[in-house]
Please model this.
Amino acid sequence: MHTLKKLFVLLLSFSIISCKTDEKTYNQGINITPKPMELTLKDGKFTLKNNAIFAVKDEAVGKVVDFFISKMQRSTGYSLSKQQNRPANNYIDVNIVSDLDVNNEGYTIDVKDAGITVEAKTPQGIFYGLQTVMQLLPAEIESPATVEKVWTIPNVSIKDEPRFKYRGQHLDVCRHFLDVEYIKKQLDVLAMFKINKFHWHLTDDQGWRIESKKYPKLNSTSVKRTEGEGKVYGPYYYTHEQIKEVVAYAGERFIEVIPEVELPGHGVAALAAYPEYSCTGGPFEVRNIWGVANDVYCAGNDATLTFLTGIIEEVMPLFESDYFHIGGDECPKDRWKKCPKCQKRIKNEKLKDEHELQSWFIKQIEQVLLKHNKKMIGWDEILEGGLAPSATVMSWRGEKGGVDAANMGHDVIMTPGGWLYLDHYQGDQNVEPVAIGGYTTLEKTYSYEPVPEGLDKNKTHHILGAQANVWTEYLYSPEQTEYMTYPRIIALAEVTWSPKEQKDYKDFERRIANQLVRLDGHKVNYHIPIPEQPKLSADFVAFVDSAVVELKTTRPIKILYTTSMEEPTVNNSKEYTAPLKFTENTVLKVRSALSSGKMSAVRTIKLDKQTYALATASETEVTSDMKVEYYKGKYFKASELAGKTPVETEQTESLRKVKYRIPDYGEISEDDFYSVVLTGHFNVPEDGVYDFSTVVDGLWIDGKLFIDNEGTVRKNMKSGKSIALAKGYHAIRIVRLGNIIGGWPSQWNSVDVSWKKTEQQKFRPLK
Model:
């Protein structure tokens, strides 16, 4: 504790000194991330110069040093080399010390005016020590091109080792595929932050992404799907050689690649090619709808186990990891309940029910893995019906599964959705790009503590670490996937590496400014908070007399704006410091700017001065009910409904009571799609500006299209908009189209519309 207090004071003084020597604010202070276990700042500094020498005696360490020489030569333009003997100065001395007082991933660093000494027990420890040396240098050390700069490091002593041995990132490539070059790029960046596990989610209902020479139809049928709009996505998969290439690349960066082949659920892509391993015999198509399918592998069919054993035995040799992830999550039991083979299996094996059947099935797969000296990992559903003896559990549905498994004596990797699902929104969903839902800011991810409450104190050693998950249902491009991943994955890196006592979000937030510049060197499209409105997140704001726009961001960051139709830049814009007042029509453009000068996406807010729109009906002309019309079939435009005859018409007094046509989301077919049209009136109690919120395809007020989401991916529908309305009854028309644009059926979403008078309590337009 004495060391930590000393560190705080010395860091403060170093930041002040740095202001005089480096013009870049993001390079001020010490920015090592994850924060090291112990650091002591001393007087003086080391300056890296041309012809610096890496002193290396161990051949395995020499390969690690070559990795860093290549990087440092690129950004500094210096000639760097290695030799066995250490010169008098301008050196980085790298040594293996078998009895060093750190664990196998730990290291020590001693920086003096003459040079740097890095020691560790293993080449992996040396790798992490040199990553820390890179982080002691200015952020531009990660630049892909030469930067003219004085490359100085403060004199420090560091002793460091990770808190947890499992520090991971999961990546789903089934919903949206990511090529080998993308994967390599991510491995480069993950290694910078000492993440050591890459969980590669390779099979799911929506796509099979790994070559099979034993079952060739997986390479043709299972690797593509027809999207809801009719486009074919794929074929996409990795060959055996590509898998080996990635595994070797990761190994050079001390990252273990863990494959996942999903079973017994999430197998529709495989069943589309081999329907005989299902309960019904199919036929199936590779699923183009997100979520969970009822069709799963048949647990009563011995041939199914033979099929999956063949796949696993073909995939295993491609990976060096001791672990093999089998999924085990979200497996509906509907088919098994009706399947004669599954019911016979339950009877013959004296199982209690379908949950025990799943446990039995997974235990058969466990035996296959144990035969090949592999350890099984599964999502926390594998606890249901009885846990396989050697299984490691990934706890994603909160923390309970992890607590239960650890208390039973099983190893656990914590990955609860509320903190560590990086497909969640990291800002206002009306401002940020499409996401699957949820709300997980950088600060929330950083706040996670991997050892959960409720865990028996003598079982804490079963918590191997934690992992952040990147699911790609709504990540349509590599750039969007990076946007959701960074910088939150860096928070996970610190959560799993640094001592719990050292967690300090404000300091982490400061250091992130430096780390983002390092990401620039790798051309990573990371998240920069887009300005939000704390009270009304709408890009169209109506007003009668004046409007006030208040802005905020999810992290402290400069906000710039223009009212001249020009996009804000660092040079042409005003800085937002207080709420803005407008009395005339204005187009307000806002964006955030980092200390590096890099900026967020531009947000455009239209402020529209209006007069109150007069009521279009009297109280005697309207009823309290709305007319609801249902049109069967897929529709992508409201105009397509013109001239069509509804299959059913009814009246409703509440939008909440509109019928939903799919009771079981796993049973969707072409006949299940319905579009809904609602028409009627709503009463405005007094003159005012009213804010509407909805994610329907179209909303008309008094015959004019007011909110238009037609053709928009379902989860990306923008909902906020305001209008000036006079007291009285106004006509309303709502259209909700039945289709699967973007992978979710429209019937899963409400046709509800909420509205409120600005600054007043929300209420409903209908009784």
